[in-house]
Design a protein that fits this description.
It is a single chain. The chain is mainly β. About 0% of the residues lie in helices and about 55% in strands. It is built from no helices and 9 strands. Strands 3, 6, 7, 8 and 9 form a 5-stranded antiparallel beta sheet that branches. The protein has a 4-stranded antiparallel beta sheet with strand order 1-2-5-4, with no helix packed on it. Strand 8 and strand 9 form a beta hairpin.
């Protein structure tokens, strides 16, 4: 699940949220905004039964995917678009 919060200027805070236990293990969000570097934006467990991480992004098009333990890649169906190149956001 994605949450968008408009900020000053042309920036938006995107909060990436997943259930606490699915998929199991560590999950990070990787995308063009962090050089596709695993572990840079790792989702953190929250008291409400989710795990989240927030990233501030400029206006424009962005691509991302999730990377879970054991090299499991997956997309976010709540993104603006999902295709063979991953999840897409239009801000």
């Amino acid at each position: 699940m994605l949450r968008r919060t408009k900020l000053f200027g042309r920036k938006t805070r995107i909060t990436f949220a997943l259930p606490l236990d699915h998929p199991p293990g560590t999950v990070s969000v990787v995308g063009d905004f962090n050089g596709w570097e695993p572990g840079r934006h790792t989702l953190v467990p929250r008291r409400d039964g989710t795990r989240t991480v927030s990233v501030i992004l400029p206006a424009g098009a962005h691509r991302f995917r999730y990377l879970a333990t054991d090299a499991v890649w997956f997309d976010d169906e709540s993104a603006d678009r999902v295709d063979g190149q991953g999840s897409h956001l239009e801000l």
